[in-house]
Each structure stands twice: as structure tokens, then as C-alpha cells.
Amino acid sequence: MDTYRIGCDKLLDRFRIWDGHLHKKVHLIACGGTAMTLLGVKDSTKDIDIMVPDEKEYVYLIKKLQELDYRSVTGYGWRIPGDMFVFDIFRGKLIHTTELAESPLKEGNNLLFKEFSSIYLGVLNVYDLISSKLIRGSSVDIDDCRALMAHKRDEIDRDKLVFRYRELASYQLNPKAANRNLDLFLERI
Fold this sequence. Notes:
By secondary structure, this protein is α+β, with helices and mostly antiparallel strands. It folds into two domains: 6-124, 2-Layer Sandwich (Beta Polymerase, domain 2), CATH 3.30.460.40; 129-188, no CATH class. Helix content is 44%, strand content 21%. α4 packs antiparallel against α5 (139-151), α4 crosses α6 and α6 packs antiparallel against α7 (175-188).
């Protein structure tokens, strides 16, 4: 495996280390390529994207990561000096520049992947996962969405996906362009 990518086992190892330093419950919701890796759609990811929907849990987690020598390296990114992996940690309903319509902690908006002593590790629901990737519209994101659709074909309600996406697109600066991403994607699949 490419040394600049991280697979499911190594991701879980990192979260176990974090869990050993936490003394309060923290909900982590995997999104982006991290969610795709945990779902088994991809073997690995090059960046680790997680959401911490609860504000107090976010502040607590960042404080604990700083105690472990994690440092802010980008707007959302945290890394230990010398480590190649950056953990993009998003607060609330935000993924990069896209804000979800509902909290990922609302029932049905995430799937429990693993529960540690203090960490609840969930995966963002497929509708918000596809929508948040399609909003960005990069070729990698579109390829990921196609792979996820193929992997979860029997579980995805196309009408629900379209409704969820259009709702999210309506909050974008350019809803027309965002909706074009979905239309092109649906034509391709």
C-alpha cells in the first residue's frame, strides 16, 4: 500500500490512541474518503476527514490532541510533527465549505462503525456523504460517489438522494452550478 495513504486498521489504531487519552465521550463522524475507507468502498485514504458535531466535544478533543502534540497545520488540519497524515477535523455540520442541512448526530444521519471507551466512531449516512462530495465536484469526488453508488446500490433510494442533494445545493453560493454536478453525475450512472 502507498505509504502516503492510510487504511482502515491504521485509522482505528489512531483512534484507539486518542481514546486512551480521553475521559469524556466524543462523537466522531467519518466523512469524505475516511468514510469511504471505513465502509470498505476504498482500501485507503490520503487524508483523514472527521466531523465533531458537538461544539463542547470539539473543543475538548482539540485540547486533548494538543496535549498529544498535534498542531494546527491548515484551517481544519491537525498533525503531529513529522507525521505525514493530516486529520481534518470539522466542527458542527460543516465538511470543508459545505454545511449539512441536519446534524450528523440526528438519528439516521450516521451509522455506528465502532464504539471505544470514550469515542463513538460513526460514518456519515450515504446521502450526505454523496451530496457533500458531489457539491465539491472534483473528478476524484465524482469517482468516489460512483464507487459508493455501486457498493451500496441496493441500499440507496435515488429519489431520496436527489431530494437530499437539492436541499443541500439550495444553500450553496451558486445553487445552479451545484445542481449541475448532480445532473451530470446521474447521467453518468
